[in-house]
Amino acid sequence: xxxxxxxxxxxxxxxxxxxxxxxxxxxxxxxxxxxxxxxxxxxxxxxxxxxxxxxxxxxxxxxxxxxxxxxxxxxxxxxxxxxxxxxxxxxxxxxxxxxxxxxxxxxxxxxxxxxxxxxxxxxxxxxxxxxxxxxxxxxxxxxxxxxxxxxxxxxxxxxxxxxxxxxxxxxxxxxxxxxxxxxxxxxxxx
Length: 190
Fold this sequence. Notes:
Layout: H1 3-22, H2 26-33, H3 37-44, H4 52-62, H5 66-69, E1 87-91, E2 97-104, E3 110-117, E4 122-125, E5 133-140, E6 142-147, E7 150-155, E8 159-163, E9 168-171, E10 178-185
Antiparallel strand pairs: 1-2, 2-3, 3-10, 4-9, 5-8, 5-10, 6-7, 6-9
């Protein structure tokens, strides 16, 4: 079984478990997440590997972090995540990527990410749940952060925070690679 097959199986098990724990029907989760009922069924039956955007929508709707949804151990008081267990969520041929380094589900999910964006590339995100916040620290290059249609330039050494319940995107409009660290705080389940 490949790593992708294991990830697909893990997501199927975890999505079923969290949906049951929250008491959501397929239709209720579809309505909360904006993901179709048919897609949720395919994911729960491990017949598809959903996009990062779909996985984020489902995690947000369930008020859990992505790694919680991917069935990673959440029980230890201290959890060390070796580099090999970090979850690479997307990558491009040019080398852009985002990696979920570690997270916690306590009191609302909190996630720590590492990003690399090559010149001319970027990634857009659908709005997160109301009350979600992102913190970004740029360590190399110059990031163009677009929040609700407005572009903001964040140079190396600078940081930014924003309400992530608006559509947002991360772009590299410059000539050198952008490297950044991001923390995402999601509201607890209501």
